[in-house]
Amino acid sequence: MLRLFLLALALCLSLPAGAQAQSLQPILQTHADEVLKPGRRSVDVVLVDLVASGLPQVVPFLEAWRDREIVQRDEDGQFFRRKGGELIDLDTAVVAGPAAGTKLTEARPNGGVRRAISEALVQFQLSDPDIGKRRAAVDAIARSMDASQLGPLTAAIETETDPELKRVKSRLAGMLGALFASTPDGRVAAINALSGDLSVDVRAVLNTILSTQDDVAKELPEGANIARILKPGTDLTPQQAYARLSAAGLAPALVTQSDIRAALIAHIDGGMVGGMPVAALDNDAGRAAAYDALAADGVVPPRVSAEAEAEAIESHVFFQRYAEADPAVTDAARSVLNGIETRVSFSQAADLGLDALSLASIYFLAAIGLAITFGVMGVINMAHGEFIMMGAYTGFVVQQFVPDYTVSIIIALPLAFALTFGAGVAMERLVIRHLYHRPLETLLATFGISIALQQLAKNIFGTQARPLTSPGWLDGALVINDVIAISYIRIAIFVLALMFLALILLVLNRTRLGLEVRAVTQNPGMAASMGINPDRINMLTFGLGSGIAGIAGVAIGLYAKVTSEMGADYIVQSFMTVVVGGVGNVWGTLAGASMIGFLQKGIEWLNPSNTLAAQTYMILFIILFIQFRPKGIVALKGRAAAD
User: How far apart are CA 183 and CA 201, in angstroms?
Assistant: First the structure.
């Protein structure tokens, strides 16, 4: 500790007298023996003089010394750095001659000395002009968390020019101050300054201060910083309590059955042991009596009776004491840690909510097209997931021709809508229109189309997952604090879901097509009598729902894998979203997506190790929910609600 203190002091003061020296050789000659054969104590003086000199060549010398490259030329006692078969001058860094043919004595610092040299180098690097070296020095201090680094680190904060690195230095100095400040008041102030930091390493520092050790005594020791008093029977079992007494030497050890057996076997003499024949030792009572006889003769330690065990436990106090002796420090650490853990709990809940909201937006994008087709037409389209897959592959193909990922996504979104809109219209005209009011046949037909589209995608793109790369501005995540973070891609998907919600509401409520769709949804017969062509509306509606699925595929492809089976990952959730929210209702789809997204994330949080079980529980919950609200969260109004 003396060496480390002197190093820190020398670095902070940078003595002017030493700074006037121009060469390392006088310092090295003064400590020649310590340089060649340094020890953990003798290296202190050398390091302090080197640091105090303020010479720029000190850092290269320390690096070479640490790496065992320093040698002394025997003829004149001068020190050099040996590298690549050449002798390098320590002051000018130029080649002074070949190493071969010259009598040299090597400096051989041991492991402890090399660690001391490394610590001195870290202190130099804290103020190095190279920001990379300053960052490396801060990282080294963060790994070691040594008291000797507090002074140099604090001194280096004021001269730091990089704002982010200055913040890191200040934060690290606060943690070191909480652990190693010279006064209790200084430590308490440093601990209180950490109250707004939710990071894991700050919590680790506070937990280090609050570390405890188990203890037992006749009575609580005066002046001890007691963390907790343990009550036998509640906090400790009687066996655990007595074991602690025995380990502390406050009570004799219990004699176990195996101890009795071993003792009896060791003292058999002529078929007798403890005055009893061996044949009589076939039960616990007989063995105990023989052992007690041996104990009465002083051959073995006596057994501890249950009464003596209970009395020993009753006459002692069991407690945990803090390793930190100052109660003011531990009280401050406990108060700050409790506040941080409370904020962490709220932050974890908020982070879980953001994840659930992100998942809900993905489900909404995947299900909104299905909600339109299923709600208006009553068609169970099992190929809806494949329209999502087609949209994702459209984005992949566009990126093969447009290398700018931002431009490619802008092109892919309308192109995916047009492609899947056309595919949806073709599917409705060729297949669906012939199967209206025949739900089983429609389900089987669309399921067959789903398989065919998957196989077609495999034939074209193969079975390997294809990358749909997001633009660079979507890389990374929005970090609110050390607990709450959400990726920019998920934010973009959430914004896209909001845009689609607004667009669909605008189309349904402010356009003629929307008016006709709502009319056909609520009462197809009356809509037809008013001059609306339900057949045309069904075609456009199916195409619109399919086109929206294509756009959803581009968005989902930025987040998930793009394969021929990707649609199957979302078809079940899409149907659940539509049914739970309310068939044929945009707001119902939004409510259903929110409910399923939050429910799934909540179940996964309760059972994080088994996502399959979480999905099973979610489906069971939805089945129960539908039993009580069969028309969904937001039910249709009008005659369609009775169908």
Answer: 22
